[in-house]
Amino acid sequence: MRRLLVATLATALTLAATGAAAHAHRRAAPAPGAAGAGDTYYPDYGNGGYDVAHYDIRLRYTPATDRLTGTTTILATATQDLSRLNLDFLLDVSSVQVNNRPAGFAREGAHELVVTPARSITAGAAITIVVQYSGVPSSKAVDGFTAWERTADGALAVGEPEIAWWWYPSNDHPSDKATFDVSVSVPDGVEAISNGVQPRPPVRETLGYTRWSWRSLKPQATYLTFLTVGQYDVTTDTAADGTTVYNAYSQLLPADLRDAAQASVERTAEIVDWGSTVFGPYPFEARGGVVLPPGELGFALENQTRPIYSAGFFRRGSNPAVIVHENAHQWFGDSVSVRSWQHTWLNEGFASYAEWLWSEKTDEGTAQEIFDYLYATSPDDAPIWTTAPADPGVAQLFGDAVYDRGAMTLHQLRTAVGDEDFFEIVRTWTAQHRYGDATTEQFTALAEQISGKDLHALFQAWLYTPAKPVLAGAPASSA
Ligand code: ARG
Ligand code: ZN
Q1: Of 367, 403, 366, 405, which Cα lies nearest the Cα of 385?
Q2: Whose CA is nearest to atom 3 of ligand 1?
Q3: DSSP 366-403
Q4: Of the candidates 63, 67, 249, 234, the residue with the CA atom closest to the CA atom of residue 152
Q5: Which of 24, 93, 335, 346 has its CA 20 to 30 A from that of 472?
Q6: How far is the C-alpha of 452 from the C-alpha of 470, rounded, in Å?
Q7: What is the ipTM score, two decimals?
Q8: How far is the CA of 386 from the centre of ligand 1 (A)?
């Protein structure tokens, strides 16, 4: 889902540039949709020329063979006259239909599926794309990397930024979010868990398979759409605001890990309630978490409505900080997504700063103390200082500058404008860009607008300069 303004403007500019503006009725010939969404770091991720509203992903998966078969139906709107369009996908496609007619399809580059409809598509027209496919996802690699993981009792589709290619065709970029139906048939006795709510309970099918259905009611980025298949113990509840709570714990967790994980994840509803008071109303229809079998993944990810946690996060006992981090992402990253991957500090800086705010609230150290500690202990030549959070580059996209210095930037902002304006900025940000996407420049402009202060020097030093910022005067109080 994307506002159509950009396409309209682009069309107007094209007409003006070709001197065709005078001939109001003349149309440009249908052209191929772009092979990328315009990302500054990943130019071939996502695609151009259309805007997806909904994905219906209907699959069957067999853990023993890692075989995935299925059909994804994409409901989209053309944003230009299209002769063809691209999807991002890796598995083996057996047929593609566009608007009920067989379409041509061909693989191009590492992960592009080029679809040529029987008839060209007019700007503004509805497009229904049906892709039927099969494959063994773990056998597909791009640049030697496979994001899909097989586990001891199933599989895992979780990753950032790359994961969708291994299990469903999409416009794989956070600037084109859509609602999702995910329905997966798996052998009886294993769970298939995804985002959102269950529109219907699991249904027994023939041949010893059970179909699990999941639905995301709010726009969701492709990388935040996840699937885990395996044996899980589930706890469910309804939160005070009526949203569904659904938590899942791998049955492969040893008892001590399982207890620590549960003592953390079961606090999700409480932590989200706290987040609602700090960041603005919780944007989604469900909350909860999934804890993976030991040894899987090695990170946590803020899958919309249902973050996923590597078991390792609970090896040293309960860990509310990681629950705070992933759930803060529901506002920062999931509801307000990055327009381009370059702006990831808007996700990670806020999620990290949420941990500082939680620490402050639970008397485990103030945000100022955490800031001072990081400032004093990080060597001048460490990546946290030599990388600019607003332009970290792909290699440092998930580095300390994006996480810790991102949080430090927010703390500097809070110190400069005071708590009242700071939290006003935060809540205005989540309200203005709810279910959409945004850039660093939009954030700094909003901060200046609400505070009425010139914050150029602050943001220049903290976000854009690959060197340790000099602190002006004595540290201000954090209160
Ligand atoms: N967004 C995730 C988090 O901070 C991190 C994902 C890291 N990805 C990775 N490939 N290491 O919670
Ligand atoms: Zn994060």
Answers
A1: 405
A2: 301
A3: -HHHHHHHHHHHS-TTSHHHHS-TTS-TGGGTTSHIII
A4: 63
A5: 346
A6: 23
A7: 0.95
A8: 21
